[in-house]
Amino acid sequence: MREGQNNVIYRADYQAPGYWIDSVELSFDLDPAKTRVLNRMKLRRNLDAAPQPLRLDGEELNLARVLVNGQGTSFKLEDNQLVLENLPEGGDSFDLEILTTCQPAKNTKLMGLYVSNDSFFTQCEAEGFRRITYFLDRPDVMASFTVLLRADKAKYPVLLSNGNLVDQGDLADGRHFAKWVDPFRKPSYLFALVAGNLVAREQRIRARGGKEHLLQVFVRAGDLDKTEHAMNSLMASIAWDEARFGLPLDLERFMIVATSDFNMGAMENKGLNIFNTKYVLASQATATDTDFANIESVVGHEYFHNWTGNRVTCRDWFQLSLKEGLTVFRDQEFSQDLAGEASARAVKRIEDVRVLRTAQFPEDAGPMAHPVRPDQYLEINNFYTVTVYEKGAEVVRMMQTLVGREGFARGLKLYFERHDGHAVTCDDFAQAIADANPDSTLARLLDQFKRWYSQAGTPRVRASGLYDADARTYRLTLAQSCAPTPGQDVKEPFVIPVGLGLVGADGAELASGMHVLTQESETLTFENIGSEPVPSILRGFSAPVILEFDYSDAQLIALLAHDTDPFNRWEAGQRLAVNRALGFIRDAGVAARDIRLDPPFMNAMRAVLRHPTLDAAFKELVLTLPAETYIAEQLDVVDPQRIHAVREAMREQLARELAPDWEQAFEQHRESGAYRPDPVSSGRRALTGMALSNLCLAARASGDQVWPGKAYQRFKDAGNMTDRFNALAALVTSGSELAAPALQRFHAIFKDEALVLDKWFALQAGAPDRGGNVLPAVKQLMNHPDFNIRNPNRARSVIFSYCSANPGGFHRPDAAGYVFWSERVLELDAINPQVAARLARALDRWKKLVEPLRSAAREAIARVAARPDLSNDVREVVTRALAD
């Protein structure tokens, strides 16, 4: 691939490798200070490629020996590559042996082979394997791996790698070995190795076909009691994938290993998934309902990769959404199917959309905007984004919408029949879904549909309606557009499935269906409509677009009360709240303390809270005001302080005026029975927690100490982490004087539980900013004995919670938040560039900021960009942020 300015890699320059690697035998002598890696490979020239030297990728390796067919050979080391030229001609295989050493204990980047808590772990996606040995470190080179691990038996009694354990035993000098063979060819990014003093929860299962499998979840000894939910989630994932898509577990064993030092959430290495402890460990005493749900989702996600990512993988990293978008869709479907009830499924769908709209839509509108299938990158780690994952999942979901649930399953079956064992592209996947459904809308519009892969930005659908009482018709016009994004000024029309319904004044469903918008503008006519309806548009969030329709308050209140589509019912409440927030924000002459919410809005919210049949989880979603970041995206010029003040004023008024209803909700939904993290029980706890938070907030305004006192008592007496943490959060976010002793008590109880302490840190760093108090608190937290910036989870809990998730505290008038950000980005870049690059994105949308914040933010970004020793990870982010 061509290397242009800043070594930018272009999708258009893809070329097949000049060599194939058929098999790999790796021998590791594991030592934290100096690990010895012997790599024996069988290679052959790719006769379809032009003759070329063999260039093997390698980083931070000490090269000791290179042999070709057992003989020494000449080589060069240039630009982090081992270059070999005098190699056997023709297509016959030849042997290549490479001996290197590396230093896992000094690997703070957590890419390649590294040490965490006296154990060895690996992370090879996307380009970490080159930090273990010299290799063709690219996803389209798939090889068979045999791995021999040798280590001190007392220190590292557990030795794991991909595939099946074929041999193990003792060696001299207190050492031992384990030999693993992976029966499936895989690219190097799916390689994994774990060695440490670990214990396992084990479960044997029998699959539908009669095969027995061993499932293992490995953790440190003190965490074994927190692995039951992860194991249950793994078993549910295996059963679901076989039942829904006919995809069985294909290995004798499947292993999950948890580590506290991990850049990502988890990694789908073939048969040996390595997880961040955050997505494995859970007990009712230490994990919230959200943690339980996330573990189920992430365990499912990584297991589903066994087919959508491992058995069929990406030809190149531009195709990342081939595996990630598809697998996010699969884990969303898994969670919805496990939720069971239609209302619980709807809650899950709304939660997924909320992530998309608060994280991905801003990305689409910012300097890092890129298509689901990017065309270029400087550092591939920067493209593990919500666009590739969550928007990619929405693209797959639209395919299922256009071919139907059964049609999608047929398409996935054809995809595996064609491509099992190969590295392919997004086009190959889309073609398989279309070919399996030749009469479908997708097949007819496939070329146009694939613009979702190639065009960046969030399309807007502008809708307008006209009712003709005499003709009893309703005409609905839909027009689509998409704003320019970096490198893409002109956008062609997308294929947009639009779920539609018409709701009568009495709440009756007058019409429903799906329209596929393909032109810039189209008009639909509905016949025999007896009275002017309220259009319910984009039902179920049928496409990742921004809907523009000039709803009146009366129409939105009608949808909130009557729409049969849960998503649009929730959306109506969000629109009511956003409209009011925007009005208050734009009315600069009104101080936040003087804001008054109107009776129709308050009555609508009260009606939701009092509704006798709505699920508690759904009520909590409707009554949660839109996030400050989402409100900001609706504005051309953003004053984060004003947004924060307005939203807080709205929240306080809802708390005060609905106080009797919050009390009733609290008493009605609090549970005292056995803890279960199922959707219904979780929903009840969520609404109870919201009620308690609002009652403490209302008490703050009145000076009443009754509800803060009750919250503190609930904090002390809670039988599960969800209720305990909700009570603690209610005290902290309301600014109660009881927050300090509660925080102190919480730390004393959970000082030895790292994941719980992450919550403790994050709650304080993300607290509402009252008088500029959060930044000093954040700096104090960074000096806490339990803070360690080298641990990604701990860094995220403090620094990210402040810079990325607390806009009211971060965007300070004195720009001190931006100075703090620039210092932390540079500090982290020297330790772990991946983590630093994600933090760097906290100022993606700086150009929308009001002055003088805008200039101050630019100055902070420029300060980072000026450092000559920046990693590619951070350089790409800040350079794109500063671009015109």
UniProtKB/TrEMBL annotation:
<comment type="function">
    <text>Aminopeptidase N is involved in the degradation of intracellular peptides generated by protein breakdown during normal growth as well as in response to nutrient starvation.</text>
</comment>
<dbReference type="InterPro" id="IPR035414">
    <property type="entry name" value="Peptidase_M1_pepN_Ig-like"/>
</dbReference>
<dbReference type="InterPro" id="IPR038438">
    <property type="entry name" value="PepN_Ig-like_sf"/>
</dbReference>
<dbReference type="Pfam" id="PF11940">
    <property type="entry name" value="DUF3458"/>
</dbReference>
<dbReference type="InterPro" id="IPR014782">
    <property type="entry name" value="Peptidase_M1_dom"/>
</dbReference>
<dbReference type="InterPro" id="IPR042097">
    <property type="entry name" value="Aminopeptidase_N-like_N_sf"/>
</dbReference>
<protein>
    <recommendedName>
        <fullName>Aminopeptidase N</fullName>
        <ecNumber>3.4.11.2</ecNumber>
    </recommendedName>
</protein>
<dbReference type="GO" id="GO:0008237">
    <property type="term" value="F:metallopeptidase activity"/>
</dbReference>
<dbReference type="InterPro" id="IPR012779">
    <property type="entry name" value="Peptidase_M1_pepN"/>
</dbReference>
<comment type="similarity">
    <text>Belongs to the peptidase M1 family.</text>
</comment>
<keyword id="KW-0862">Zinc</keyword>
<dbReference type="InterPro" id="IPR024601">
    <property type="entry name" value="Peptidase_M1_pepN_C"/>
</dbReference>
<dbReference type="GO" id="GO:0008270">
    <property type="term" value="F:zinc ion binding"/>
</dbReference>
<dbReference type="GO" id="GO:0016285">
    <property type="term" value="F:alanyl aminopeptidase activity"/>
</dbReference>
<feature type="domain" description="Peptidase M1 alanyl aminopeptidase Ig-like fold">
    <location>
        <begin position="457"/>
        <end position="549"/>
    </location>
</feature>
<feature type="domain" description="Peptidase M1 membrane alanine aminopeptidase">
    <location>
        <begin position="230"/>
        <end position="448"/>
    </location>
</feature>
<dbReference type="Pfam" id="PF17432">
    <property type="entry name" value="DUF3458_C"/>
</dbReference>
<dbReference type="InterPro" id="IPR027268">
    <property type="entry name" value="Peptidase_M4/M1_CTD_sf"/>
</dbReference>
<feature type="domain" description="Aminopeptidase N-like N-terminal">
    <location>
        <begin position="26"/>
        <end position="190"/>
    </location>
</feature>
<feature type="domain" description="Peptidase M1 alanyl aminopeptidase C-terminal">
    <location>
        <begin position="553"/>
        <end position="883"/>
    </location>
</feature>
<dbReference type="Pfam" id="PF17900">
    <property type="entry name" value="Peptidase_M1_N"/>
</dbReference>
<dbReference type="InterPro" id="IPR001930">
    <property type="entry name" value="Peptidase_M1"/>
</dbReference>
<keyword id="KW-0378">Hydrolase</keyword>
<dbReference type="Pfam" id="PF01433">
    <property type="entry name" value="Peptidase_M1"/>
</dbReference>
<dbReference type="InterPro" id="IPR037144">
    <property type="entry name" value="Peptidase_M1_pepN_C_sf"/>
</dbReference>
<dbReference type="InterPro" id="IPR045357">
    <property type="entry name" value="Aminopeptidase_N-like_N"/>
</dbReference>
<keyword id="KW-0479">Metal-binding</keyword>
<keyword id="KW-0645">Protease</keyword>
<keyword id="KW-0482">Metalloprotease</keyword>
<keyword id="KW-0031">Aminopeptidase</keyword>
<dbReference type="GO" id="GO:0006508">
    <property type="term" value="P:proteolysis"/>
</dbReference>
